[in-house]
Structures are given as C-alpha cells and as structure tokens.
From TrEMBL:
It comes from Acer yangbiense. The chain crosses the membrane at residues 21-43. It comes from the Eukaryota. This is RING-type E3 ubiquitin transferase. GO terms for cellular component: membrane. SMART domains: RING (SM00184). The keyword Transmembrane applies. Keywords: Membrane, Metal-binding, Transmembrane, Transmembrane helix, Zinc, Zinc-finger. Its EC number is 2.3.2.27. One of its GO terms (biological process) is protein ubiquitination. Belongs to the RING-type zinc finger family. ATL subfamily. It is found in: Membrane. PANTHER family: E3 UBIQUITIN-PROTEIN LIGASE ATL42.
C-alpha cells in the first residue's frame, strides 16, 4: 500500500482527473517549499552559526576582581611589570589577575585588551 505523492503514479494510467493532478502538483510544490524553507531557516543557521562577539563576555569580566599592587611577591607569577604596556607596577596601581593562569596586568590595559580578545596575552590561556 502506497501513500502520499506515489498515488499520482497510480492515477496517471488513464483515469486521473484534472483536480487530482492539480492537487498533487500543489501538494508536492508545498512540500518542496516547506523543505526549502525549513532548510533555510533551521538547517542553514546551524551549519553557519553567527560569529560570537569578539572579546571576553561581560559575565566573565565581572568575576575578575581588581586589586591594588603592593609587591610583586604577592602575585602568583611575581610579575613587576605589565606585559601589555611594559610599564612597571607601582604601589597602589589597580591590577587584574586572569582566573585561569593568574597572570597580572594593569586593570585598564587588560580591560581594553579583553574587549577584543579572549586569551591571556602572556600565555594564551583561554580567559572565558
Ligand atoms: Zn599596562
Ligand atoms: Zn596567562
């Protein structure tokens, strides 16, 4: 027993009426239109997902808390300069340590950097 558009073949041997043919032509046309649109709206966006915005998301940035520089001995990697602007850390300067690797930079320098990149500028560890 055959269902759907295959019935068209059966009808064609002599006694298919115009209404039958119009119906099946419309049916197949609608089916193709449905397939095409579902491909375009459902499959296509999944094959080519929209590019994520560059930079570290705000939700991650909010979790990175700034602190004041005292001595390089208190830092995990004992840095005494910012790898972005290459200025030496001065006591009382606002710094940020990245959570995965602990590398420390000026708050302003790394803040600006994270608007366009998601990896640590020193060790390339993913910040997000
Ligand atoms: Zn800096
Ligand atoms: Zn790092």
């Amino acid at each position: 027993m055959r269902m759907g558009p295959f019935k068209l073949v059966v009808h064609f041997d002599g006694h298919a009426t115009n209404e039958d043919i119009t119906f099946w032509v419309l049916f197949i046309f609608c089916l193709l239109a449905l397939l095409a649109s579902s491909f375009y709206f459902w499959v296509y966006p999944r094959l080519c997902p929209p590019a994520p915005p560059p930079g570290v998301p705000d939700t991650v940035r909010e979790r990175i808390v700034s602190f004041m520089f005292e001595t390089s001995a208190t830092l995990r990697h004992h840095e005494d300069q910012c790898a972005i602007c290459l200025d030496e850390f001065v006591e009382g300067t606002s710094l940020l340590s990245l959570p995965p690797c602990g590398h420390t930079f000026h708050s302003d320098c790394i803040g600006e950097y994270m608007s366009g990149a998601t990896i640590c500028p020193k060790c390339r560890e993913n910040i997000t």
